[in-house]
Fold this sequence. Notes:
Elements (H helix, E strand, L loop, with lengths): L2 H25 L5 H23 L8 H24 L2 H8 L2 H12 L6 H18 L8 H23 L5 H21 L8 H27 L2 H4 L5 H14 L5 H24 L1
Helix pairs in contact: 1-3, 1-9, 1-11, 2-3, 2-8, 2-9, 3-7, 3-8, 4-11, 5-7, 6-12
Amino acid sequence: MNDRKKGIILxxxxxxxxxxxxxxxKYLDGIPVAEKIFFRNLLGLxxxxxxxxxxxxxxxxxNKKLLILRSIFGLLGVAGYFYALSYxxxxxxxxxxxxxPFFVLVLAAVFLGEKIKKLQILSLILAILGAGLVIKPExxxxxxxxxxxxxxxxxxxxxxxxxxxxxxxxxxxxIVFYFTLIxxxxxxxxxxxxxxxxxxAKQMVGFLALGTFATxxxxxxxxxYRFAPAGELAIYTYTNIVFSTxxxxxxxxxxxxxxxxxxxSLIILAGFINYYTNKKKA
Length: 282
């Protein structure tokens, strides 16, 4: 098996584990978001610390301001995503979360001076139309989770944009360490302030699964990029939508409506156009 095939298999596994992570968050209904974030990052913090020690990387980091900024953006993105998963169908939450690459396009152009190609402008338009169809705005209280989901996607895109700059100054181990450390510590005050539910046996298994799926997804994704360029693998991350839709149908009988299906298809098409443009540019 050549390196390209290994990279594709690993990125597909990563998409599956991210879908399972999202499903686990939704399964842990009744558990506060802060508690879910804490346990989601605790295992990641342990693994990141181990990798830093093993690979003799800097635990302090070089660009501390951007490391902290990336962590804050990432934490806000995860918090909004987990909130959306509690109130929206699984597929809708994941579809809107996949808007983050398009926010990266805009933010990278504004702050990093990266140029947006004409086809990428088309992909942005299709993505916005797709998001609108998924949201189906009725301008009442039911719109709030959708707004939070889009906002979470924006913060995730902001985090990825900062990472594009941090790759020149800090290792991936250090970036993950900062994110998991800050995310874990930041949730403690919320849990001590009455937002803590003593988990039963099933919920403890859920927390373990949450941390395992999240860590496995990150591990598969990181190793996938060692075997193949990011530009070649980006399109396969959209299988996350397919996996999440299947899980939603099987577990919660969440059959996507026609508008959500069309919207999700437009966002996947937009992702393919963006992938094609990056590949052509490369």
